[in-house]
Amino acid sequence: MGREEQIEEREVLDSIFPDEITDVSDTSYRISITLEAPDNDEQSAEAEPPVLILQVSYPEDYPDVAPELELSAPPNAPKHPRLDIAEDRDRLLEALQPTIEENMGMAMVFTLVSALKESAELLMAERVNAVHAVQQAEAAKAEEEENKKFQGTIVNRETFLEWLDKFKKEMEEEERKLREEKEAEEKKANKKGPAKEEKKLTGKQLWERGLAGKADFDEEDEDGMPAAVEKMKIAA
């Protein structure tokens, strides 16, 4: 009974996957499964679509027992940025266990292929969403830091007292500097001493220097008269 169901299922699968199925033996075959990359992933858009190779082997009592499954990538296939068959193989095969248990006793390979495709594509989508979440968090943080430049400090009693204390210290420092500068200027001025008063020339000195007529002299100061004036005074 088991072998008849196996042959029948194989024929059905051949009509569903005419280009994707390849026989390995009478009871074993491989099915190539091309995955669809997430639409919101720029890296996946530039890469080739990932392909899974599911090898199915029928035990003698299949479908009353689970089929033997192996999962691999095509030979020389480029590594996809969101899926690594070598690392994700066990996770993907484990995800098929609930489907196997639900379909025990029935032909289940088509259902397993569909579940595997959905599981792998969901895994890629989760990774893309995780990348986007990190990018959004970084963008939000950068925006927050940028907004801080335009926001003042929130004023409360603590911040006001802190500002007031700082302001008083700055004013005291400014007054100290001005006082020191003023004291320094006063000391510098005292060292020079009082300015000398300009000495006034007598009439005699003005006459001898040829400045007579340009400046007046004191008539009562005989010592200040020029010699010629003195002689005229005696002759009279």
Notes on the structure:
By secondary structure, the protein is an alpha+beta fold. The protein has a domain at 2-132: Ubiquitin Conjugating Enzyme (Roll). It contains 8 helices and 4 strands. It has helices at 2-16, 42-46, 85-95, 97-102, 109-148, 157-192, 203-208, 227-235; strands spanning 21-25, 28-34, 51-57, 68-72. The protein has a 4-stranded antiparallel β-sheet. Strand 1 (21-25) and strand 2 form a beta hairpin. The protein starts with a helix and ends with a helix.
Give a quick precis of the structure.
Residues 172-201 have a biased composition (Basic and acidic residues). This protein has 236 residues and is of the alpha+beta class.
List the defining traits of the structure above.
236 residues, Ubiquitin Conjugating Enzyme, four-stranded antiparallel sheet, 54% helix, disordered C terminus
